[in-house]
Each structure stands twice: as structure tokens, then as C-alpha cells.
Amino acid sequence: MWGINSKMDYNCLDFSNHIHVTGEARSGTTLMKNLFRCYNGTLVVAAESSPNLLNAFTGTKEERDFILSQKHLRVVTKLPYSCSKCTPFTTENYPNLTNVVYVVRDPRDIVTSLHGGLRPDVKGPYSWWRREELFNQYPKTIDSLPVYFLKVKYEDVILNSARVQEYLSSAFNLDIVVPFSSWHLLEDNEGVFSKAMHGIRPLSPESISRWKTSIYADEINSLVSVNSFLQEWLIKWGYS
Fold first, then answer.
1. How far apart are CA 211 and CA 220, in angstroms?
2. Is residue 206 very low, low, confident or very high in pLDDT (cuts 50, 70, 90)?
3. CB under 8 Å to 58, separation ≥6 — which residues?
4. Are 162 and 179 in contact (CB under 8 A)?
5. Mean pLDDT of 179-206
6. What percent of the chain has pLDDT over 70?
7. Nearest 5°: CA angle at 103, between 102 and 104?
8. Where are the domains of the chain?
9. Cα-only R_g, the chain
10. What is the pTM of this model?
11. Helix (H) or strand (E) holding 20
């Protein structure tokens, strides 16, 4: 991997041709990044990667330089960050980055979502241990995001995939070659995209409001009942 060694390196990056996907861990950022493979002329970086394009590719320097020289490609990177770090991560460290997709998801589903790539010794949902922090900070983070962030609800991606695909196509001037509803038919490069999502599969509403049938449902209801700000936010965003 390569890092940024000077301001000159950073200023040479073409952020106008770069799309970065971010959001809370387990909010659907991996799926959102993969869906960009349904557009023509996108280069989706398989590994988790910051917007530092010099750090986004493995291989030789010559291979990296060749890829970055292909100005017709829209490079898509993804790195989830906790609600307490997302905004400073994108606005302070990468001031030239303006093409950002932030995935919004019902925080109750976030804290009960299982990660398909966790080690066998890691038990339970990935974000459950920080449920109180997330319930308090997540709505505030969403409401304070820069205006140029494109906020895309995970639930809309699942239930209204065609509308979301057209929205992103228009926002980034991308040509659709495969509908989001058929994204699972794309080649998966030896499984590098599927690990966190429990495999490649069609978009399904089964992942929406799954928290209601989890063993944590009662505690979640209890936490929400004493958090009036979260209650109002859930209603505002259509999470009744």
C-alpha cells in the first residue's frame, strides 16, 4: 500500500472523479459500494479504503499509477466510521472530497446486525456493545452532515432500488448497465465482496426491521422509550 507523503501528493488526487461511500458500520455500506458496479465506467475498490486514492490499491506502483491515470473511470471507495468520527473524517481530513454517499439505516437494525466476516470467537451483533452511544449520537450525526453528502436510506435501496439507482445515476452522471435488482448476478471476484454480507444474494426486505424479532427487542424498546430525541428522529425518517 502507498500513503500520502506530502501535500503535493494529496493535491494531485482527482477527487472530482472519485465517489466515497460511508456510514455507520452495519448500515449497508458494503452493499451500497457493490451496487456501484451496476454502472458503466466505475472501478469499485474491493478492500476497505479511505478516500486516499494513493492508499486504495495493492500491487506495484506501476499498476497503481496506471489505474489512477484512467481518468474515464469513477473510482469508488468505502470505509464505515463510527457516528462520532464520520463527519471530521470526511470534512477535515479530505476537504476536496465532495462526492460522498452516506448510508442511513434504522439504528435498531444496526445494533442487531450480524457481520458475516467476524471471527468464530466474536459473539453477537457487531455494534450491540455500543448501543447506548449509537442511539444517542447517530441521529445527531445524520442531522449535522455537510449538505453535499447524499443521504441514501438502506431501506429505500432495498424497497425502491430502481428509484435510488436513477437518483445516483443523475447525481454522479453514471450510465446504468445492470439494474440494482440484479446486482447479485455480477461476478464476485472470488468472494471479496460477499464476506460481510453473508454471501451474494438478491435485495430482500427480510433485513428490514429484523430487530423486532431479535432477542434484544425488549431492551431496544426500553432504551428508545427514554430517549425522546431518538423517538422524534425515528418518526422523521420514517422509522415508526
1. 8
2. very high
3. 1, 47
4. yes
5. 75
6. 72
7. 115
8. 7-236
9. 18
10. 0.84
11. strand 18-23
